[in-house]
Write a structure and sequence with these properties.
- The protein has 288 residues and is α+β, with helices and mostly antiparallel strands.
- It is globular, with a radius of gyration of 22 Å.
- The N and C termini lie far apart (65 Å).
- The relative contact order is 0.10.
Length: 288
């Protein structure tokens, strides 16, 4: 009887365990992801499009997405994407790029699967890193899910383990994943970006405004002659005050509660990134 009950328990909760491990869940609104408890979350630094970063004893994993506004009939298998990603930039060597269908919790999805070997030096030592990347389109967004570990890929190297981890992915429909306030923010950002460049004063100009995940990225040019005279603490305070005038308090409270922030990427005239200034919902609320 006990064996029968134990068997029934295993049948009833298969979604809770993979490779004998309890699963954890991540949800960013556009997709959710169940992953083994052997993976631990780690801080994301200097990667505004990344929404999840994990590590285990054997792998690093990252998930990122970009709002492309693409037609839903476009496929990641179209030649424009294949041609774009078959020539990697940087110090990576592309081993293979294949058009594949992977299984997820939301069904079968087309993807481009890239095997890349990366060779680096650290303190005189050669380091070989193999990276497996899944490129996917959904609801006009481009998603990348990447696994990396030590070693080198060949065309024949098995990807069974990452493929199984990807089964924990579930895409969501935009109409169900975003509230009216989320959509309102997206529309505000699109309208402002259409007005760029926006001259703020004689020293600063907003060049681009985009929404990446839960971060509003504002690329801002600061004239070189002004760089030494700008007080960036005052700049941040002024931006907070401007938001408090332009936005209803309830709207900012919602953004703060749901983890939205604004990041000003400050560039000089040579397009060199000089500074990043983060404005949180809490910062703006202090100005009401």
């Amino acid at each position: 009887m006990r064996r029968t009950l134990f068997f029934l328990w295993l049948v009833c909760v298969p979604s809770m365990i993979v490779y004998g491990q309890v699963l954890k869940n991540f949800d960013c609104g556009l997709f959710s992801f169940d992953y083994p408890s052997s993976f631990k979350t780690i801080p994301i630094q200097n990667a505004p499009h990344m929404v999840l970063k994990l590590e285990s004893d054997d792998y690093y994993f990252s998930a990122s997405y970009w709002e492309k506004g693409l037609d839903k009939n476009i496929s990641i298998w179209d030649n424009e994407f294949y041609e774009l990603y078959k020539n990697p930039v940087g110090d990576g060597t592309l081993i293979s790029i294949t058009k594949e269908i992977i299984q997820t919790k939301s069904g079968s999805h087309r993807c481009l699967k890239l095997k890349t070997n990366i060779h680096r030096q650290n303190q005189g030592m050669n380091i070989n890193i193999k990276m497996l990347t899944y490129l996917m389109l959904h609801d006009g967004y481009l998603f990348t899910f990447a696994f990396s570990s030590q070693g080198n890929y060949s065309k024949e190297t098995s990807t069974t383990y990452p493929d199984r981890i990807m089964k924990g992915l579930r895409f969501k429909s935009l109409q169900n994943s975003f509230s009216d306030l989320d959509n309102a923010l997206l529309e505000k950002v699109k309208k402002l970006n259409a007005q760029c460049p926006i001259m703020v004063d004689e020293c600063t100009t907003h060049l681009q405004i985009v929404l990446s995940g839960k971060t509003v990225m504002i690329k801002t040019l600061v004239e070189d002659i002004c760089d030494d005279v700008i007080d960036y603490d005052e700049f941040k305070q002024k931006m907070c005050e401007n938001f408090s005038v332009a936005l209803e308090k309830a709207f900012v409270q919602y953004l703060d509660k749901n983890g939205y922030s604004v990041v000003y990427m400050i560039y000089n005239e040579k397009e060199k990134l000089k500074k990043k200034i983060t404005v949180s919902g809490h910062d703006i609320l202090s100005c009401y």
